[in-house]
Every structure is written in C-alpha cells, then in structure tokens.
Specification:
With 303 residues, the chain is mainly alpha-helical. The protein contains 15 helices and no strands.
Length: 303
C-alpha cells in the first residue's frame, strides 16, 4: 500500500507575492517624475499671477517675475480695479456670471434631455442623429462663430446678451457624454418598472433618471461653465457695447489700451489682478461640486 501524502499547508502569515514586470519600480519613479514636471508646468503661470497681483505698476516692470516686490499692493490693486473706468470690472464680472450660469444650467438640461432620449428611445433616424452628434463634437467652436453671427444677425439679436447665451446652450460633447452614461449606468429595468406603475415619461425622467445622472450632470455643468467663463472669441465677435463685455474681452481691452497708451494709461497691474480674481469663482465651483461626482446611482434607484 502506498502512503497518502497530505498537501503542504500554506502559512497564514505569508501571502504569495504578485508577479509583476521586471523593472516596475523604475517605471513608477519615471511616472512620478513626469507627473511632477507636469504639476510644475501648470503651477508656474498661476504662481506668477499670484505674485504679480501683489505688485504696483512700477514694481511689476522692475522686480523679478517670480518674486515679490518691495511692497504689498494687492488690496490697493483690488480697490483700484473696481473703480477704474467707472467700475467697468464689476459690470464685466456680473456679465460673465450671467453668461456662464445661464449657459451652464441650460446646456446641462438640454444635454440631459437629448442624451436620455438617444439612449433610451428608439425612433427613425436615431443612428443618423448619433453620427451627426459625433461630427459636431469634432468641429472646432471657432469655425462656427461666423455662421452663428450671420444667423443671429438675421434674428436681430447681435450685441445683446442672447448673442452669447444662445450658442452656448448647445453642447454636443455634453449630449454625447450623457448618452453614454445613461446607456451604461442607468438600468433599463428601473425605467420599465416605473412605466408598469403608470408613471409618465417626464416623471420618470425628473424623479428617477435625473438623480441617477448626477455625476454626468455635474461634469457637463462644470465643462460648460468653464468654457463659457473663458470664452473670448465669440463675445468679441458678437458684442460691440463695452457694458456687455465679459471679463475675457474687457481685460483684453485694458491690455491693448495699455500697450497703445504710450505711458499715459498703463494698467497692466489691474489686468493681472483682474485675471487672478476671475479664477476664484471657478475654483470655488470645483470645490463645491466635486463631491457630486461620486455615486448618485444608488440614490436615484432608491427614489
């Protein structure tokens, strides 16, 4: 008779070491080094803006670029910023907030409706609409400014706030993003169950689907907010009244006047301080809305 051999026991304190590619640690160090270089590349311009905003106009041209001047003129620059040209910066800031807020909310709602319709409804021409949507994503926004200007000129709304808001309400990328999100993350069984309970389509969308799309909605909202807040070429073409300018066009106007003033009215320090102040609302929006990126699907399903 042959003796039965029991298999050797593995020690509970020792786990098998996962096999990995040779040289994994140097690759990790290289990746960290590249990430560090990328962080420095993006932070140096921001550091320059922060440092330059603390300088007066003479110190801005005489002191080192990435170091502070002899004094601290940030608060004096802010006070002068809101009084220059009769408080033009305050009007530009308010205009930018209106353009960005209305455009972001409207574009997010329209993208949610269109993306949900493309993902969950079958209708003639659906494939054609999806193909056209992908094509619109690939078209640069600047290429559409001239046709948009001609269209809005025919409607008679050039040099009004609607000339900036209406084109920003359409977001092909946001529609495509929500269409993919709904198709992958919103269970169709929940929608069918709501229909069996005789819920209407609008009630299903606003009470069930919309809370489940919260991460995608916040993404589209932030993308549209940043794009409209930083939009320069479209308002430059559509607007001729300085009282309707957003921050991008208004600050560029001050910059160009400072270059052409031959020393009579140089306000480079106000342009830099205004640029720094214009960043703050975007940072606050990202900090407040980033928590909505996580989850949201389970909450919508329970509702």
């Amino acid at each position: 008779m042959t003796a039965l051999r029991t298999p050797p026991r593995l020690s509970p304190h020792r786990s098998p070491r996962p096999a990995g590619p040779a040289g994994g640690r140097p690759r990790t160090r290289l990746a960290h080094a590249l990430m560090g270089l990328g962080i420095v590349y993006f932070l140096v311009p921001l550091l320059w803006v922060v440092v330059a905003a603390t300088k007066s106009q003479p110190e801005l041209l005489s002191s080192p670029a990435l170091w502070f001047g002899d004094g601290f003129s940030l608060f004096a620059n802010l006070a002068q910023l809101f009084t220059e040209d009769g408080g033009a910066y305050g009007r530009w800031l308010l205009n930018t907030a209106v353009y960005s807020g209305v455009s972001a909310v409207g574009a997010t709602l329209l993208a949610a409706l269109a993306g949900y319709g493309l993902a969950r409804f079958d209708f003639p021409g659906r494939r054609l609409f999806e193909t056209a949507l992908l094509g619109m994503v690939m078209v640069p926004a600047t290429a559409l400014v001239l046709p948009t200007y001609l269209l809005l000129s025919t409607l008679g709304i050039i040099n009004t706030m609607w000339a900036v808001i209406l084109p920003s309400l359409l977001s092909p990328f946001g529609t495509f993003l929500i269409r993919v999100y709904v198709a992958e993350s919103v269970p169709e069984e929940i929608i069918d169950a709501a229909r069996l309970d005789r819920a209407g389509e609008l009630r299903i969308f606003f009470r069930i689907v919309l809370p489940m799309m919260r991460p995608a909605l916040v993404t589209v909202l932030l993308f549209t907010l940043v794009a409209t807040w930083n939009n320069y070429f479209q308002p430059l073409v559509m607007l001729s009244d300085a009282d309707l300018y957003p921050l991008t066009v208004g600050l560029t106007t001050w910059f160009n006047l400072s270059q052409q003033a031959a020393g009579t009215k140089v306000v480079f320090h106000l342009v830099i301080t205004g640029s720094l102040l214009a960043i703050v609302p975007l940072v606050v929006a990202f900090v407040l809305l980033q928590r909505f990126w996580r989850g949201g699907v389970a909450t919508g399903a329970l509702r």
